[in-house]
Specification:
The protein has about 220 residues and is α/β, with parallel strands linked by helices. It has six helices and five strands. The chain has a five-stranded parallel sheet, sandwiched between helices.
Length: about 220
């Protein structure tokens, strides 16, 4: 049966997180198509990964037979994350914008899972796997907006996931998520609601389409 890798990184629980509500909609639609399938859920906020250090990094460039106990333990985690990615038929990643970029917990996952010669390099092991990124943000950084040049989430993730790992990347972008709680953005609430509703609809549609494609 099909396997979905779901990665959440929002600091907030689903009731207060735009990205989690969309990944939840994606998961629900996916499970409706694959009730007997597998969902691997990594919640990087409640169970954060260690940041990549010299021990874990050096282990990827040395003979496993020469690894110290510390290298063995550190590299075992990297292998576990790589295997989760490799066995996934589809991936959905929540990437809320924090200070113009991705959460540090998501960056830690990327640093750990990117292994040159395996998940990255000339023949990435998960090449072609469809990845849906939920790139939520409190304002708008779309082309033509005043803060277009501050968009470092989609640009970065397109480069690393597609360019570096060969994954087939698509984005869902719920924006203006701060409008309901920021009086200065009150006039933007209708636009936020439209964006929110579209994001949920897109998540369900994409999940269903991917599930049907895999079942064909």
């Amino acid at each position: 049966m099909a396997t979905l890798l779901l990665i959440d990184s929002s600091l907030f629980p689903e009731g207060g997180s735009a990205s989690r509500s969309v990944t939840s909609a994606f998961r629900k639609a996916w499970e409706e198509q694959h009730p007997d399938g597998t969902v691997i859920h990594r919640d990087l906020a409640t169970d954060p990964l260690p940041h990549l250090d010299g021990v874990a990094a050096s282990a990827a460039f040395s003979d496993p037979a020469t690894h110290t106990p510390e290298q063995q333990a550190a590299f075992a985690l990297r292998v576990e994350l790589a295997e989760e990615l490799e066995q996934a038929d589809a991936v959905v990643i929540a990437a809320p914008m924090y200070n113009f970029t991705i959460p540090s917990t998501l960056k830690a996952w990327l640093d750990q899972v990117i292994i040159m010669g395996r998940t990255a390099g000339e023949t990435p092991s998960a090449k072609g796997t469809p990845v849906t990124v939920v790139a939520s943000r409190g304002g708008s950084y779309a082309p033509g907006t005043p803060r277009e040049s501050f968009e470092y989430v989609q640009n970065y993730l397109e480069a690393v996931l597609n360019g570096g790992m060969g994954l087939d990347v698509d984005f869902i972008v719920p924006e203006l998520t701060m409008a309901p709680s920021n009086p200065a953005m009150a006039e933007l609430v209708p636009l936020y609601e439209t964006s929110r509703d579209k994001a949920h609809q897109d998540a369900a549609t994409k999940a269903k389409a991917l599930a049907e494609r895999l079942a064909a």
